[in-house]
Amino acid sequence: MKLTKLALSLVAIATLFTFAYAANKTIKDDSIGIRQGSLFQEDNVVGDKTQYNTDAAGTSTKIDRAFENAPPMISHDTEGMLPITIDNNQCISCHDPMVAPSVNATSIPKSHFTNFREDVSIDKKGELERDGKILANSSDIKTIVKPLDHLSNARFNCSACHAPQSDSKIVPKNNFIPDFRGTDLNNKSNLMDNVSEGVK
Ligand code: HEC
Ligand code: HEC
């Protein structure tokens, strides 16, 4: 019995060494990603020009979602729209659900008109508090799902999550294949229908 255990341990150790050796052989810091050479040098990044789509909004072709309920990439030119500022958010002017259908744009979804964090305040000392009690960590803020009658401030800066896509020739092959649970979910989202999935 003891011998079998010893033999098994030896096999396990040998396997570990084989993997460690293989890993050591295949991954070197100068062959990670598209940077050729040492990761500690800045001047060896292989350049490629950033080429965003120049088709104007209304004439572009939408890009398939990267995975189910991923934020869609901006398919059109964003010239003159970025950066978004408090006085100038052109994205809303076309994507507001009241306007979007008339300009053939996708409406800002319900999830962006929802509060996912309970309201807390900040006291004079800069501490987070709820109902007069100080919260030790921001992780104490509860997750909620509360519909709002306006766009959530957390969604105001669209470009924090939605990005235009640059056409590049040197991007390494991506082997990820998204698995959509519905046939139409590669070009629309249904997050609010299943946002509580798996939550007790
Ligand atoms: C002039 C109106 C207009 C403005 C301004 C505008 N969009 Fe769009 N957007 C559209 C239209 C129309 C489409 C649909 C694709 C097309 O026809 O070009 C679209 C498509 C998109 C998509 C892809 C949606 C999908 O379902 O795949 C995203 C994301 C997006 N826009 C985000 C933005 C953001 C972020 C801004 C601000 C930086 C912005 N848009 C500004 C009209 C606009
Ligand atoms: C915090 C990240 C975040 C911000 C900020 C954000 N979005 Fe989104 N957006 C998402 C994600 C994630 C999805 C896909 C899941 C969903 O529908 O919520 C999405 C989906 C969308 C869709 C597709 C809806 C559909 O039915 O297919 C549009 C259009 C959109 N967002 C526009 C905007 C605009 C315009 C802004 C700025 C006013 C914005 N978003 C800000 C993360 C964000």
UniProtKB/TrEMBL annotation:
Q: Describe its PTM? A: Binds 2 heme C groups per subunit.
Where does it mainly reside? periplasm
Q: What is this protein called?
A: Periplasmic nitrate reductase, electron transfer subunit
Q: Name one Pfam family in it.
A: NapB
Looking at the keywords, is Cell membrane present? no
**Single GO term (MF):** metal ion binding
Task: List localization entries.
Answer: Periplasm
Question: Cross-referenced InterPro entries, in alphabetical order?
Answer: Multihaem_cyt_sf, NapB
Residues annotated to bind heme c 2: H112, C158, C161, H162
Entry's family note: Belongs to the NapB family.
What are the BP-aspect GO terms? anaerobic respiration
Q: Which residues bind heme c 1?
A: H76, C91, C94, H95
Q: Name one GO cellular component term.
A: periplasmic space
- Signal peptide range equals 1-22
Alphabetic keyword roster = Electron transport, Heme, Iron, Metal-binding, Oxidoreductase, Periplasm, Signal, Transport
